[in-house]
């Protein structure tokens, strides 16, 4: 019999960023896989694929399933293209003790016909019940040791990131085993920053050696997790080491991924129940370990795919619903081959079917609501809210906006029209509705990067005062205005609308109202009413939500308001009309919907963003930022395409402002019918 039992020591040591060392007594086994059935028959207290004091199960190794270990390894060898015949396989590992096991690593040593080991399969486990297989080939022989080098590809310790490489050495003289694993990192000059060592002296695996070892170490199996916890607390609280969150396994050699928690199972149940209700379209869900499930008709003309990378996606969905969907995408827990199509599918479901929120979901959403309430647009907070979105980087915005640097809905004459032309058409239409002349002083609330102000002065000769809360936008807008030679006609102020003074002939605000917040609508429109001259006109472009959903929407929060536009809120037309009626002298002269054009605008932004993805990363933005903005564009594109949200251009004036009203009617071709007298 080749199988053995070993008694020895496991040691761990850290050299960087803090020194730390510990070691514990341990026992482990060397199994010849061909001998497992015989050991099951002849060794009392040992069970192979059955319950016993000491137990070995095929299902515990490599991928899940009861396939025999030799067959599983044969599948691995075929997958990696290992053509050399394997005569014998030894497994160095730990076994279950009364069904308790802690198995951080196992080694499959593959021997050829000459009894030489040229291939080792190292199966590594972490505390998330994930398993990764390192394929160690082409060893270097150093002092009778087999040595391998391989890049790190699996998260084990939360106190190290994923960078680095392992140097693994085996010393084995049939009686003694010494396995040493060193982690080296380039930032430390490729010197070892961590080592783990398993060493022991072996004896033949018999009833006597087995039970003597078990009696010597009766509590080892149950002490492993407390020992790990103790060392982790020491590293975190005493040594102050930083903690790295568990990344999503994306290697083909990660054989097992984290199983769904209770929360994940609840989220899965709720989501699939919604999918089963959907009468139109089909969706295929691919799970982390490659199996898939399809809901709806396979031959449906409207189909989409959802690929789950990590079961934490379902946990987030159970806890936070739509908010969790966005957080999960940003974290990389799920993806889709066509994100906009998937968002369109989800929007169709949520609009068609009611969803009952669980008690724990209500609890988590209360937390997010409280977080959103902290972003109320007070005078102090409004500037920070704007800065979080618009002061990210002018260079980043240039990566997806057109040459006009216009960050609002364009108006297209045709679908494939150049975005810059469509943006100028939108700006010209707004300026036309404002009925500008060279004698006017225009107040623009929300500068953007200065395009509208430059266009207004260039076409009409008017003066412009433009206000913004974004320092980045102010600086670039001023540069562009100077380059256009219009600094004497346009002034850009870093100012809140509540602090503006003076009187203006016209006021224009393009997609700034969404950043005001419901509580401040009265203050915004009262300021406009106060700042606008008696015969003035106010033109607003704003994204809106349907009146039927406004009440529920305004009392909660969503992913967009938490992570993209903090403090923001979409108004409804009725909500705006109510505020105008109760707090101002304004009346609505015209409302025009341009929402369908926003889907086209977002499609072009998203395409440009994708093309310049690597350049944006070079600017210092992480992958999570890229995914957040991909989700943001697709989220909005689906909303506008389904008219779940709209974009309105609203012209406001005062009831007795007849000259402006007549001029407006004449300019946009809606003059009153002629009477007999005027004929």
Condensed summary:
This protein is α+β, with helices and mostly antiparallel strands and 679 residues long. The protein contains 22 helices and 26 strands.
Low-confidence stretches: none
If you consult CATH, what is the topology of the largest domain?
Rossmann fold
Number of domains: 3
What's the level 1 CATH class of the largest domain?
A: Alpha Beta
Using the 3D structure, state the CATH architecture of the largest domain: 3-Layer(aba) Sandwich
Number of DSSP-assigned strands: 26
What is the mean predicted local confidence, pLDDT? 92
Mind telling me the C-alpha Rg?
Answer: 33 Å
Number of helices: 22
Instruction: Describe the largest sheet.
Output: 12 strands, antiparallel
Based on secondary structure, the structural category is alpha+beta
Overall description:
- The chain is of the alpha+beta class.
- It has 3 domains: 4-238, no CATH class; 259-371, no CATH class; 374-666, Vaccinia Virus protein VP39 (Rossmann fold), CATH 3.40.50.150.
- Helices cover 38% and strands 26% of the residues.
- The chain has 22 helices and 26 strands.
- The strands form 4 sheets. A 12-stranded antiparallel β-sheet has the order 10-11-12-13-14-1-2-5-7-8-9-15.
- The termini are far apart.
- The model has no long low-confidence stretch (mean pLDDT 92).
What are the salient characteristics of this protein?
679 residues; Rossmann fold; alpha+beta; twelve-stranded antiparallel sheet; 22 helices; seven-stranded mixed sheet; 26% strand; 3 domains
